[in-house]
Amino acid sequence: MTSLRYLTSGESHGPALNLILEGMPAGVPITLEAINHQLLRRQKGYGRGGRMKIETDQAIVMSGIRHGKTLGSPIAIRIENKDWNVWQQEMSLWPISGDPKREVTSPRPGHADLSGGLKYNFKDLRNVLERASARETTSRVAVGALCRQLLEHFGFVLAGHVVAVGDICWDGLRPSAKEILERTEEAPMRCLDPQIETKMMARVDEAKKAGDSVGGVFEVIVEGVPPGLGSHVHWDRKLDGRLAQALCSIQAVKGVEIGEAFRQAHLPGSQVHDGIFYNAQQKKFFHKTNRAGGLEGGMTNGEPLILRGALKPIATLYTPLHSVDVVTKKEFEAAVERSDTCVVPAASVIAENVVAITLADAFLEKFGGDSLDEIRHNYEAYLQQIHSY
Ligand code: EPS
Predict the structure, then answer these.
(1) 59 Cα to the center of ligand 1, angstroms
(2) Can you give the pLDDT at residue 260?
(3) Which has the closest alpha carbon to 225: 292, 311, 140?
(4) Looking at residues 46-64, what average pLDDT do you find?
(5) 137 CA → ligand 1 middle, Å
(6) What are the phi and psi torsion angles at 284 (to 5°)?
(7) How far apart (Å, rounded) are the C-alpha atoms in residues 267 and 271?
(8) Average pLDDT score over the chain
(9) 340 alpha carbon to ligand 1 midpoint, in Å?
């Protein structure tokens, strides 16, 4: 990230999750409702476990905003963990008398437990799992909620939806981003097709009954993106790479696809690349297809972004896998922590918001200024330049 910077902190069962976002220009209207709306969306979805019934994630904004507009100063937000009430002993910040309860010594295959224990020299793997938990994404969604309020000002529309849960796949025609948002907002699995969604829910039920978990694939569409965000000139400025990093850093995401990448790998170039056309009336270059997913040469090409992420099934299983206790070295079943059966709907919301962070950073790089007015001026001048190109 070059224009924006942010840090998150917080343990899953600690007192709170925190974030600081630095680099937001001054004068951007922000509402608390819009932040809390994204936090609420992240908590929803069929297949979630008990924790989401405990929490009502709410942003407590500590700085960077005055009378509903950004000041250009760092924005700090705190989101309290209600579950902290019953974890105050186990997660006490300060020494406690007696043994800390709920120690974890049997690492879960697929989770950060063993690698983190080896790396940080912890025998109580709770010291790893508390931060590795996807609860951390609460902070990132709040950062994304701030960033998308800047982007929405310039006509960006971001929409995530679920395209696969286990072997149940949606493969329909993709509507506009606005329609995706409208049609999936109340859908339990954020799937566009109610019949397929019913099958997805049955897959989740089956997995839950078997003490198992199930993964899947989400898709994020972004409309209203101007051409020229990112750059071809250097590896770390390529926007496709930056988006892939943002998506792959979401817990449980093991694969990222841009456009139809995995299908295209098996086709000749003539069937892959999107022909270029010119609309003389609108003075605008365009593509009739968008197999590239809106990105060419590490830059946006003016078409909507189409991004996908593949999630492995959650690593905590109620029917645990084979493991070895890190203290006794005896073969043992992996630890059972309370967990979700399926988090693909939540991941699609998280993905929307981390994409918003990356795009806001790229947008500010290109059009950056200290105030929203200055940025608008730069943006409009660029649109004019493209128009007369
Ligand atoms: C999560 C909160 C966690 C888990 C989940 C994500 O709550 P708890 O650990 O108290 O049940 O539901 O974390 C994981 C899946 C994981 O592997 O750590 C959340 O807020 O999203």
Answers:
(1) 18
(2) 96
(3) 292
(4) 96
(5) 10
(6) -140, 130
(7) 6
(8) 96
(9) 7
Query: For residues 348 and 163, what is the distance between their CA atoms, to the nearest angstrom?
Result: 10
Cα(251)–Cα(142) distance, integer angstroms: 16
Residue 380: phi and psi, rounded to 5, are -65, -35
Q: Which residue lies with its CA nearest to atom 10 of ligand 1?
A: 51
The predicted pLDDT at position 71 comes to 98
CA of 357 to the centre of ligand 1 (A): 22
C-alpha distances (whole Å) from 305 to each of 122, 226, 330, 356 are 42, 11, 49, 12
Pull the structure tokens for residue 364: 């500010």
| Cα→Cα distances 133→32, 303, 315, 338, Å | 25, 35, 11, 11
**Does ligand 1 have an atom closer than 6 angstroms to the CB of 127?**
no
pLDDT digits (tens, 9 = 90+) for 9-25: 999 999 999 999 999 99
Torsion of CA 42, 48, 54, 60, to 10 degrees: -10
- Span 301-328, average pLDDT: 95
The pLDDT score that the predictor gives to residue 8 is 98
CA 341 to chain centre: 18
Q: Kindly report the backbone phi and psi dihedral angles of residue 197, in degrees, each rounded to the nearest multiple of 5, phi listed first.
A: -60, -40
pLDDT of residue 388: 95
What is the secondary structure of 192-260 as a DSSP string? Answer: S-HHHHHHHHHHHHHHHHTT----EEEEEEEESPPTT-B-SSSGGG-HHHHHHHHHHTSTTEEEEEETT
- Does ligand 1 come within 6 angstroms of the Cβ of 316? yes
DSSP 99: P
Q: How far apart are CA 215 and CA 311, in angstroms?
A: 5
Contact at 8 Å (CB) between 239 and 228?
no
* Over residues 49-75, mean pLDDT: 97
